[in-house]
UniProtKB/TrEMBL annotation:
This is Luciferase-like domain-containing protein. Residues 14-308 form the Luciferase-like domain. It holds the Pfam family Bac_luciferase. To bacterial alkanal monooxygenase alpha and beta chains. NCBIfam families: oxido_grp_1 (TIGR03558). GO terms for molecular function: oxidoreductase activity, acting on paired donors, with incorporation or reduction of molecular oxygen.
């Protein structure tokens, strides 16, 4: 959607956090830093604070996602808290329903459940975790089961398996994806769709087109009455463009390490990386992180506005990596100040309070 005569169309901004571990720190510090960021995001008006499931990683400390979200929800007041996402093939769907139903019972209608098909780890760790293959047909059925378990008892009176707590909480479901596979499930089930363009942007345009063209608002599992899209973007705001680019070198090294199978904690920024980066690594990182807005606050806002307009997005979810957690918080403060009043999500998914 193009800009209106009154300026760019502003959509809700959210934060995706993986509890990144900085070099010289540990997982406990990373979790304290994520909690502090969530409190700040709550105060600044960001729409959602989502955490993503990763296993066996020295870079991220977000393996026990539902446990972390309980802690984050207890530390915040207003912001929506959720998974971005739960890798459903790693879990029994009933247990997911119980965990997120319990969160909704404790914290009311602030809980989101984003669902993905990827393992969220390396093949060996995945083999130790996985209980299913993540094939589209079985995955879609698991998602449908979750929708049923979160519904009120009277809508499924013959249901023999019940999620307690969870039943009647109507926890909003989101489909996550980075390909046509996730788009097809989201469309068939009538769910909002979150695309992982912050690290896998190649199929963004095709996936959104497929989702919008094939969306089924009449599906029994439908939670929105029209296609509803959120997409990810890497952001980093600093007082100057050069400082932002230098701070981004930590993210460049992180991406290169993850792709090489040698992932470790987030390293300090290094200006030399900008001058001496191996062209092959640079090309790889550029491909992975091409959806980004890095620079001064105004430059970052302009980048987000252009991203929203290009893909007609309903929401944007941002991710930021810096070695110094204080500079990550500063980036989000600068972005919020430059963006103006942060819009909140409209009533696009069930948000009924738990009785």
């Amino acid at each position: 959607m193009s800009s209106s005569t009154t300026g760019p169309r502003r959509v809700p901004l959210s934060i995706l956090d993986l509890a990144p571990v900085s070099e010289g720190a540990d997982a406990a510090q990373a979790l304290r830093d994520s909690t502090e960021l969530a409190r700040l995001a709550d105060d600044l008006g960001y729409a959602r604070f989502w955490m993503a499931e990763h296993h066996g990683s020295r870079t991220f400390a977000s393996s026990a996602t539902s446990v972390l979200l309980a802690h984050i929800a207890a530390a915040t007041r207003r912001i929506r808290v959720g998974s971005g996402g739960v890798m459903l093939p790693n879990h029994a769907p009933l247990m997911v329903a119980e965990h997120y139903g319990t969160l909704a019972t404790l914290y009311g209608p602030r809980i989101d459940l984003g669902l993905g098909r990827a393992p969220g780890t390396d093949p060996t760790t995945a083999a130790a975790l996985r209980r299913s293959t993540g094939q589209l047909d079985s995955f879609a059925q698991d998602v449908a089961d979750l929708a049923t378990w979160f519904g009120p008892r009277e809508e499924a009176p013959g249901l023999r398996v019940r999620a307690l707590p969870g039943e009647g909480t109507r926890v909003p479901l989101w489909m996550l994806g980075s390909s046509l596979g996730g788009a097809s499930v989201a469309a068939a089930l009538g769910l909002p769709f979150a695309f992982a363009s912050h690290f896998a942007p190649d199929q963004l345009t095709q996936a959104l087109a497929y989702y919008r063209e094939n969306f089924d608002a009449s599906a029994p599992t439908a939670q929105v009455d029209r296609p509803y899209v959120m997409a990810g973007i890497n952001v980093l705001a600093a007082p100057t463009t050069r400082e932002a680019e230098v701070l981004r070198t930590s993210s460049i090294v992180m991406a290169a390490q993850i792709r090489s199978g040698n992932a470790g904690p987030i390293v300090p920024p290094d200006e030399a990386v900008l001058e001496n980066l191996d062209p092959r690594i640079g090309q790889l990182v550029e491909s992975l992180q091409q959806v980004r807005a890095v620079g001064t606050p105004d430059e970052v806002v302009a980048g987000i506005d252009a991203f929203v307009a290009q893909h007609d997005l309903d929401e944007v979810i941002t991710t930021t990596y810096t070695w110094d957690p204080a500079l990550r918080r500063r980036s989000y403060e600068l972005l919020a100040q430059a963006y103006g009043p942060l819009p909140q999500p409209t009533a696009t998914v069930p948000t009924e309070a738990v009785a």
